[in-house]
Automatic annotation (TrEMBL):
It catalyses: iminosuccinate + dihydroxyacetone phosphate = quinolinate + phosphate + 2 H2O + H(+). Iminosuccinate binds at H25, S42, Y128, M129, N130, S149, H244, P245, E246, T261. The chain holds residues 67 to 423 of 427 of the full protein. The gene is nadA. This is Quinolinate synthase. Belongs to the quinolinate synthase family. Type 3 subfamily. It comes from Marisediminicola antarctica. GO terms for cellular component: cytosol. The keyword 4Fe-4S applies.
Length: 357
């Protein structure tokens, strides 16, 4: 039962003490968040993985790419554990190393590899944190960098200082929304299309490009739409609409603000007057905020279809299982990025960590 699971987790944690640390993403279910030593957005969790020196194990309650990142950044003698190995991210799966390499080679054919007179290379690759370690390694090896939704604009500025243009993967929406807010015109943000020959108007569009977008998207955030925002504004005049930048451009444009999960949390925490908030992000997080801040009215723009099903796969039963494994001295579901991938991936991640938002 839930009560038994809760008791097993509490008991295992008490036995382990600071030998194990539990990190949890904001999208985790309440029954998991209740046991986390640190809860945050993906940038904060990447930082946290570097700042738990006493932990022999980091139990990562989030999705696969986050656990990989923790493993890359943590000390090699610290085991990173993903309680359920089936907790992936469908967006991260939308870009793989072979297709990105194919795109990169086509762009090299088109733009060459020589820097211009201001020493900017033709293209800088930027990967969203929501990507495999192999893609982070690709960025590390090709002068590129990682970004999260909380630092995407600062990272793009970093990239534009070093490159004439950016190849941004996997999330088209974060790339488009961020570059648009920085003043890049939409016609200078073509989407890479591997099925088209590099000729005719496509080649011209790519030639003029400032940001080349990959076709990935988040299946949770793409469900938000402008009708939901319009409806919220009719029902609650004065409502503050805040959405995650993984939402489509029209939704971000129609909202009052867009920002990472931590941005959303802080915006609500900072509101001094009772306020109505309509939020466009994962529903578990929104419901938790609604319970935490009863002085405000807080609701998800789409309460029916917006849980992240893979985040939800971290059931307390898995958490109890891996913690009890650690008590017995057994490491279950370890995520280990091979050194030849981890080293270049760390280069790209450290570039990001050095560029403060
Ligand atoms: P944050 O970086 O805002 O936590 O977002 C992570 C994520 O997966 C959003 O879908
Ligand atoms: Fe991936 Fe979307 Fe889930 Fe975030 S909400 S982990 S981007 S599927």
């Amino acid at each position: 039962s839930d009560i038994e699971l809760e008791a097993r987790i509490v008991a295992a944690k008490a036995t382990l003490g600071d030998r194990a640390v539990i990190l949890g993403h904001f999208y985790q279910r309440d029954e998991v968040v209740a046991h986390a030593d640190f809860v945050g957005d993906s940038f904060q969790l990447a930082n946290a993985a570097q700042t738990v020196p006493n932990a022999e194990a980091i139990v990562f309650c989030g999705v696969h790419f986050m656990a990989e990142t923790a493993d890359i950044l943590a000390r090699s003698d610290q085991a990173v554990i993903l309680p359920n190995l089936a907790a992936g991210c469908s967006m991260a799966d939308m870009a793989d190393i072979d297709s990105v390499t194919e795109c990169w080679e086509a762009l090299e054919d088109l733009y060459g590899t020589e820097p211009d007179e201001t020493d900017r290379v033709p293209v800088i690759p930027v990967t969203y944190m929501n990507s495999s370690a192999a893609l982070k390694a690709f960025c590390g090896e090709h002068g590129g960098i990682v970004c999260t939704s909380s630092n995407a604009a600062t990272v793009l500025e970093w990239a534009f200082e070093r490159g004439q243009r950016v190849l941004f993967f996997p999330d088209q929406h974060l790339g488009r929304n961020t570059a648009k807010a920085m003043g890049v015109p939409l016609e200078q943000m073509p989407m890479w299309n591997p099925r088209k020959e590099l000729g005719g108007s496509d080649a011209q569009q790519l030639h003029d490009a400032r940001v080349i977008l990959w076709h990935g998207f988040c299946s949770v955030h793409k469900r938000f739409n402008v009708d939901q925002i319009d409806k919220a504004r009719v029902e609650f005049p004065g409502v503050r609409v805040i959405v995650h930048p993984e939402c489509p451009m029209a939704v971000v444009d129609a909202a009052d603000e867009a920002g990472s999960t931590d941005y959303i949390r802080k915006a609500i925490a900072a509101a001094t007057e009772p306020t109505v908030f309509a939020i466009g992000t994962e529903v578990n997080m929104v419901n938790r905020l609604a319970a935490e801040y009863p002085q405000h009215t807080i609701f998800c723009l789409d309460p029916v279809v917006c849980p992240c099903s893979t985040m939800y796969r971290i059931h307390p039963g898995y958490l109890a299982w891996v913690l009890e494994g650690l008590v017995r001295g057994e490491v279950i579901n370890r995520i280990e990025v091979p050194a030849d991938v981890a080293e270049p991936a760390r280069v790209a991640l450290e570039r990001m960590l050095a560029v403060r938002p």
